[in-house]
Fold each of these.
Amino acid sequence: MISLLTPEEEATYLDFYSNNIIKTCNFFKMPTQVKLTAASFFKKFYLVNSVMEYHPKNILYTCVFLAAKSENYFISIDSFVRALQGTEAAHILDLEFIVLQSLKFTLLVHHPVRPLYGFFLDFQAVLLHPEPVMYDVSVDTLGNLYNRAKDWLNEHAVTSDVTFLFTPPQIALAAMYDTDKRITDRYLKRKFLKEDKEKLNVIKEGDEEQPDQNTEPQNEESEKQGVVKEESETNSHHNIKLHTQREHYETLVRTIRKCIKIAKEVKPTTREESKEIDKKCFFALNPKKLIDKRIKRLALEEK
Amino acid sequence: MSTPVVASPPVPLKKRSGPATHNYSKERKVGEGTYAVVYLGHQVTTGREIAIKEIKTGIFKDGLDMSALREVKYLQELRHPNVIELVDVFSTPHNLNLVLELLPCDLEVLIKDKEVVFTMGDIKSWMLMTLRGIHHCHRNFILHRDLKPNNLLIAPDGQLKIADFGLARALGNPNEDLSSNVVTRWYRAPELLFGAKHYTGAIDMWSIGIIFAELMLRVPYLPGKDDVDQLDVTFKALGTPTEQIWPNVSSLPMYNALTVYAQPSRQELRNRFSAATEKALDLMIMLTQLDPSRRCDSTRALLHDFFTELPRPTEPRDLPKKSIKKEEPDAKRRKI
């Protein structure tokens, strides 16, 4: 009997190879976008295929090659293969179509890097303008936070499963939150809770200016009553609004925390570990070799 | 005695429809391009007429063709009445097959068909459908980059659909350089002619403006013979951009103020487009602004007064159709 890989072993094995994607892309100096797309293709491929059917090495290269094309960073197959050891053009081109098929022909991938940049801009708008909200936070602080959050994404989001479980903006916020909880939380509070008194006033004024649009202007007689009613309605409305705002904020923070937890669960895979699995995988991919080996051994025993 | 066995029919697991290959028939070859062959056929289960774009694989040195990949990538994301529908994708051993809705006619055919008369209502209707389609692309951050009458297809019910996403790309990463060698020459915006590496949806809006003009004139508006001539033709018609009307234009890579033509006067444009109302001219001017940052976007275009003044846009089903061609009598005779 061939001993097949357990799902855990397969996962460990794939984690090891996911890291190689990043190395490969860095080697070719490919943009982040390509790196992330390649990693996403690779993960999606093995949602429907097994390492025991397709060995990850060439699938990995194929994903990188296809992602580069899909992200407009074309590299010819010759120069691609020349740089890789032990891989021929045909290996990759034969697999390209199979990979595309496994992806169900879906090539567009949304990554957290773009929303991260968006948050970087909005952090500046919310925390620095018109005047700084936190005495120790400047453009430089935020720029630094942004850079470290990018590193966080590279380290935790590319290889973990979070991209299957959270939206790109949620992952981006998780990166910000885990990098600097104090600043990110302040941003979220300002965004969702309108924490400052000044801001509260703004809301109130805004509410009064546009009275509840649902209350249709009734006939003139009831208009006077309407005004009184409207005022109290605006008040309770306001409370409800504050309440839902708080709920939104809390839900979001809970989501972000969950995202951080999952992103950090990935254990680094050691080379030894994956070598061990690689051996097992070899026979699963080439059952005939195992049979031959057994026959040989049997033949020897008979002698 | 056999005991009656009540055999419960096996509950099918989520029914796996057979390979998609069997679901479509390829019946007639209708066209062949560099990377694809187009067939007409039917969806077997529904009898729906469809077109199959069979993309050749294995003939290119570098694997799957980029345009094919782009087309699949973006059409998968877009669903809109005015964008061609990608019904399905399936693979046969050597080919990638895109199943597209069947769109038998295109705007170029109609423009060239001199027996068909366009009313302002017809033009308005086509413009509206084009703008709605492109609005959908742009709000999903997708640039089409090859709008021309030939790529605006017409469905049997008269709906216009934007097709051919082989040059499309996603917009929104300011760090990336874009290629300025896009869009068929006659419909290419001035910033592209000047070799801009960063541009926006405004390039598609320019193409739509030129198509608008072509719908009224019934001949191509700016038919440049080559890339250099295109600059000349464009500026002869719309004026040469200067720093005043287009700040920083001179910093574009291929900028040169060849011959300086004056901006056309309103009266000049009125003469050029004799059928156009003042509102129609307004929209045209907004769409063909030389400075891309002043050109109007799809939202502003859709809200333009031109679309709310009379005549109303023609209902798609009442729009002009291809006139019966001279070859057709043959076909008719055969039927008799």
Amino acid sequence: MIMTNLFQQRWRRANKITSKYFKRLFNDHFLVFLVIGFGGVVLGYRDLLTAPQYAMIWHAPWLVWLVAGWLTLGLQFGSLVTYFKPADALFLMGRDREIATNYLSRALALSLGYASLWQAAAFGSILPILWRMQQMTWARLLVLESFVLIYKWGLLVLERQRLLLTQHRRQLSENLVQRLIVRGLVPMVGIVLVGFLPQRLLIGVGCLMLVVLVALTRYAHLSSKNAQTIAMNWPAAIAQAARHEQRVFQFYATFSEVPNQIKTIKRRRYLDGLMKRLTKQRDVMYRLYLIRLARDTESLPLVLRLTAIGMVLIAALNQAPLWLYPVIAAAVSYLISFQLLPNYFDTQRKLWTRLMPVTPHNRQRAYLTLMGQVLGIVGIGLVLSGLTQGWLPAAVVLFGVLGMRVFLMQVYLPKQLKK
Amino acid sequence: MGLKIDNLTGGYAGNQVLKDVSFQVDDGQIVALIGLNGAGKSTTINHIIGELLPKSGQLTLNGVDLGQAPAAFKAQLAYIPEQPILYDELTLEEHLELMLSAHQLDKAAAWDDVMRLLATFRLDDKLHWLPTHFSKGMRQKVMLVAALMLHAPLLVVDEPFLGLDTLAQRDVIQLMKAHAASGHSVLMTTHLLSSAAEFVDTFVVLANGQVTFVGSPKALAQAHHLSLSNLDDYFDLAPGVVAHDHD
């Protein structure tokens, strides 16, 4: 009972944090992204569904693989939510049985709820495509979604098992190949099979899935008797919870500032030569900002992700109004500048930086130099993407990029850096 | 000229820790700031390195006023914090290059000396390591090298022996002595009075944010009828040194 309450307590606390971040998200940048990005995607999607030149796609045999790929991608979302903390290994030591039976059963139920929402979103987003596919019926759709949900349930149970040590099996680990098979290949093939299954076999397959669901649920339930031979694998449980927490923070950090987010570093030796060349005649602060950006596992991939999203959006818009191109380009430039701002403030917070005899003006100037270069590279990518639509879209993208650059470099960033 | 602190009153927002603290660290001197937890040692250090702004009072280093020219003041000091703080993204070599560059020192000219220091602390083969690969003691040694290589007029060391092995402790003492012998000054904090008494010129005792004693280790021992070897008993005997918890 205590463990159940503990989980409920942590869940409520997590909800409070989530609502705090959601308020931040919907207050500023996320709305900008939603309006522009989502609007662009909807326009592109509408084009795809209605434009006559795409009519052939709906009968293409590879479409089922694409759909399977999308649903398999959806399966990667919604992992086990346990809210374990590093201190649990010490303070909850010796309560393994109660944690396995009470705490983890709540965690598993909640995780299934969250995961189902993700699967529903993944499924719902391609429902118009599914419906246009050959052989698609309501029964097949139902079997397809049931397969995805049951498979996700299985993955969650497997994830729970990895947090336990049993007498028979010390630790259930998973290497990359196994991961690719279990999380990628098997569900993808399963979805394709359901997609191609003859109509008359659907009921049989549906019944079989029901049996699997019952067996899986029985296996997932840990009775007090079974739990006597179980111990918590605390290092695995804490690492899994930390990974999950970081993923959630990463999502918020895409659109809002997340304080105290743990940074991870990647050496990226292949960038050393380029960095040496770039920093040769530059001052110390520029060098510091550049190295930190290049080796941070959050910021650099974020810049690349946002640039890629912007490029894909611009390249995918076929019949969109002309004004949408510069707006997307400007929004991407703005989001990137906003996202990189915490790097500046984090660098200033470091004692090493504060002890360096460098004036605030020089610190800000070096950061602006770096941002100018980043925005330049992003802008080139966006303009090139605009070129795929023709000279006029490329020209308006250039206009959007340059306009936003002037605003960012002359007004927004200098004001933010002085805060 | 060295460091001069005149009537420093300050602390954290809403919590005034230091009251009229005055002392000085002359060129060629090693001065130890001593006191129990919460006496105000770290607060004093934070004021000296410019992390805290004084409510009143003046800090000057070789005639440069911290309030008026913070960058010029900081350019003259090297600081080794109690807890080693490094950039996770930078290798050992990059940390050192960065510090040299920030203090406008030429790498080519300083590098032989840097390598000698690295060899002293057995870090010379770890130039390309990232801080994640360093133990706590090794991180502290990186901080020591980064500070000592600057040959700054003032070396500020917060608890220099924390986390160091005995060989490194001995090396740190030698290097601090050498730093002072070259005409520079050293200000350190410590709880280990007996050990510090062997190489420190002056003790500045802080209690409840106020300076209660300034003098040589010998004078401190004599004032409390202690020998230098059992100077650690000082805190048991001295009245008024028991402090509040705000350090």
